Amino acid sequence: xxxxxxxxALRQSAVDAGCAPEDLMKPGNTFAASGCREGKKTFxxxxxxxxxxxxxxxxxxxxxxxKLAQVSAxxxxxxxxxxxxxxxxxxxAFEDIFFLPAGEDITPLKCxxxxxxxxxxxxxxxxxxxxxxxxxxKRPYNDKIAVGAYDDxxxxxxxxxxxxxxxxxxxxIDVLPEYRRQGIASALTSALAHEIIKTGQTPFYSCxxxxxxxxxxxLRAGFIPAWTEIQAKIAE
Length: 236
Prior knowledge:
The chain is an alpha+beta fold. It has helices at 3-17, 65-75, 82-85, 120-123, 184-198, 212-220, and strands spanning 30-33, 50-54, 59-63, 90-101, 114-118, 143-151, 154-165, 168-175, 202-208, 223-234. The chain has two domains: 3-100, no CATH class; 114-220, Gcn5-related N-acetyltransferase (GNAT) (Aminopeptidase, 3-Layer(aba) Sandwich), CATH 3.40.630.30. The chain contains six helices and ten strands. Strands 1-3-2-10-4-9-8-7-6-5 form a ten-stranded mixed sheet. A hairpin with a 4-residue loop joins β2 (50-54) and β3 (59-63). α5 (184-198) crosses α6. The radius of gyration is 18 Å and the shape is elongated. The model has no long low-confidence stretch (mean pLDDT 94).
């Protein structure tokens, strides 16, 4: 894994968790009260109830202040799991795996269909249900660049990049059902990642831990797993 990408991601995760980057690379868990942190990833709520980030060592926890003592006492020496936080009064919101480029660059894979890069003016009319992973209707101002695959003039696949952190763009991908299993998703993802790297920024990709199809897309496109996150809300 390229150290530049990894170090960028590590610094960002430290901001998100309220810890130092080195805390994410040492054994043992770290705990901090969540808050309105400047520079956190834009898809987090203003104040998270519970966030756990793990790079393969100890976990960094960002927890609502009134639950911090309880969580730190229960999980101080534990590996984090969804099952372990439910008894503490949380409802899991997501459990995701995040990916970074495996090397210094990503070589775009060949696509059997024509591909076109689109800037915001070019995808302004594409905030539709079929492209809800590639583009964010909630945060359209974050969407910076996209690449589409076309069968003649029909858009059949779309990968979009969202500026979810200062130096990091997250890639999302959608392919129409009748065009799947043809390598379009990995081709578009790799092409967009290559374009992002050319700008000096870090592309990243994420999926739910049990979304095997998306996991395989990331691997084929030239990404490898880098860290995991669990976010949860106070149980109603």
